[in-house]
Amino acid sequence: MNSLRIARAALRARPAALRAPLQRRAYAEAVSDKIKLSLSLPHQSIYKSHDAVQVNIPAESGEMGVLANHVPSIEQLKPGVVEIIEEGGSSKRFFLSGGFAVVQPKSALSINAVEGYPLDDFSPDAVRAQIAEAQKVVNGGGSEQDIAEAKIELEVLESLQAHLK
Amino acid sequence: MTFAWKAAGLTYNRYLAVAARVVRRSLKEEKRIVAERRGQQELRFAKWSNGKQGEIQNLAAANAQAAVESAATGGH
């Protein structure tokens, strides 16, 4: 009796299975091409589930590009530029002070940073002045913590200066 | 892979705070004034034990002291 039920169920299931793929495949390809990007700062949400084709992030392990259907991963970010390439080829760039990028299943990319601004919002003069000051502290005889903090500042500033050129 | 700041006793939180401070100071005038306010922190705390409040300390100062101590003990 069980085998009869199974056979009947299989007969019923098959026609449906044959029909659906022809319609479903086209729709699925069109939707899964994009990443759902959320770029958030503690005080502001720059993007919330925004569609993007590719996102380039400055991970500690190296610059990487995230496309749709990327394997889920967690990456620590070093201070640097995140580039968001949208459909149509236009791209936006933000300099982030550091944080994490999390790729979740179904192409959901979540980037969290403490501070992030478009490159146009920065002043090259302010960057230069800060580099000079930080170098003075690093070469000076301050405490180990002051020197470590100045080295962090230099790392961020040099990355920022390189991107502002 | 140990970071240089970790060896000096700084925590990841402190690292983020320093990087954010630098980014804020590098902005152009109007945005910088708005952003600088986010960097200010005036937080005090006190440890309680046996129902009694301990000495009230400033969080920033206490963290700085903890960083020095953890660097001295080798940092981990």
From TrEMBL, chain A:
One of its GO terms (cellular component) is mitochondrial inner membrane. It comes from the Eukaryota. Residues 36-107 form the ATP synthase F1 complex delta/epsilon subunit N-terminal domain. Its main location: mitochondrion. Residues 122-162 form the F1F0-ATP synthase subunit delta C-terminal domain. Keywords: ATP synthesis, CF(1), Hydrogen ion transport, Ion transport, Membrane, Mitochondrion, Mitochondrion inner membrane, Transit peptide, Transport. It holds the Pfam family ATPD_C_fung. It is found in: Mitochondrion inner membrane. GO terms for molecular function: proton-transporting ATP synthase activity, rotational mechanism. HAMAP family: ATP_synth_epsil_bac. Belongs to the ATPase epsilon chain family. This is ATP synthase subunit delta, mitochondrial.
Automatic annotation (TrEMBL), chain B:
GO terms for cellular component: mitochondrial inner membrane; proton-transporting ATP synthase complex. It holds the Pfam family ATP-synt_Eps. GO terms for biological process: proton motive force-driven mitochondrial ATP synthesis. One of its GO terms (molecular function) is proton-transporting ATP synthase activity, rotational mechanism. Coiled coil: none annotated. It comes from the Eukaryota. Belongs to the eukaryotic ATPase epsilon family. This is Mitochondrial ATP synthase epsilon chain domain-containing protein. It comes from Parathielavia hyrcaniae. The lineage of its organism: Eukaryota, Fungi, Dikarya, Ascomycota, Pezizomycotina.
